[in-house]
Fold this protein.
Amino acid sequence: MARVFIDGFEAGDLKLWDLVVGAYLSSGVSGMDGTYCLNCDAFGSYYAHKYLPAAPEYYLAFRYRGSSAQYASSMCYFFNGTTQLARLRRNPTSGLLEIRRGTGTGTLLATGAIAVNVGTPVLIEVHYKPHNTEGVFQVKVGGILDIDFTGDTTDGATAIDGIRVGGDSTYYSSCWFDNVVVDNAAWPGNTKIQAIKPAGAGNSTQWTPSVGGNYACVDEVPPSESDFVSTNTIDHLDLYAAGDLAGTIGSVKCVQLQALAKAEGSPTPHNLQLALRTNGADYFSGARAVPSSSAQLSNLWEANPATAAPWQETEVNAMEIGVKAVA
C-alpha cells in the first residue's frame, strides 16, 4: 500500500492526467514549487481529472494558492465513474473549508476552523472513505487536522476510482495547484516533487537519435516532439545519466519515471518499459502500450528495486533512467 500517483507538473505538460478541461500550466507563480504549476484560475469548469484503481479510500495532498477571494471555492472532488461522491471547497466568504457529499452543491457535512486566505500558498491534505455509515472525511491544513468527520459520506457508491482538482460551474476554483500526491494508505505529508532530466549518455545507447546524442534528444522541458530517439527492435534499451536532486532533501518518498512516447507506422515493438539503472543493475516497469498519439507513460518506484529499502538521495543522484522496447 503506497503512493499511487504524483505530479509536480515539472514535465511541462498535463499528459499524466486523463481529462483536462480548461486548466493549463503556469510558471512563476509566487509560493509554488519548481517551474510549473496547474492553473485553474477561472470562473467556470477548469479542472484536471485522474482515473485511479478502484479503492475504498484514498489520501490526496496538494499545494494550493487561491487567487480571487470571491471565486476561490472548489478544491477537489472524489468520483466513482462519472458520479461525484464528495468534494472539498473553500467558502469564499469566510475562507473556511467545507466538506460535502453527493453531486452538485451536495450535502454539507462539516466546516473547518482554519481560514485559507487567497494569495497564501498552503498544503492541503484530504483523507476520504465513502460509506453510508462508516465513512471518513478528514482534512489537514498546513499539517494541522482541521476537519474530522465520520459517518455518512456518500449518497451511493463506496469505491473511489477518480480524483479531480479544480472547479466547475457549481463552485468556481480561481486558484493554482502544485505537488499533487495520491496515496492509498497514509497521509502524504509535506511532499515536494522535483524534476530530474537526462544529462548524458548512460550504460546502454541502443535507440537511434534523430540528431546528435541520444540524451540530447530527450532532455527538453517542456518536451519537444521535433527531436527524439526511436527503435524498431525488440529489447533495445536506451539509458541516460540524470541530474541531481537540488536543495536539502529530508527523505525520498518515491521515484517516478516518465517518458513521452508514441508509435508511428507499424512498429515491431508494441510496448515500452520504463527503465532505471541503480546499484549496477537494470530494473524495468511492466509493459506499457505505446499509443498512436503522444502520451506520458510512467512508473513509480516507492523503494529502490535493488535494495527494497527507501531511496537514498545518493542513489537517486547516481541512477540512470531510460526506456526499453518490448513486444
Notes: The chain has one helix and 25 strands.
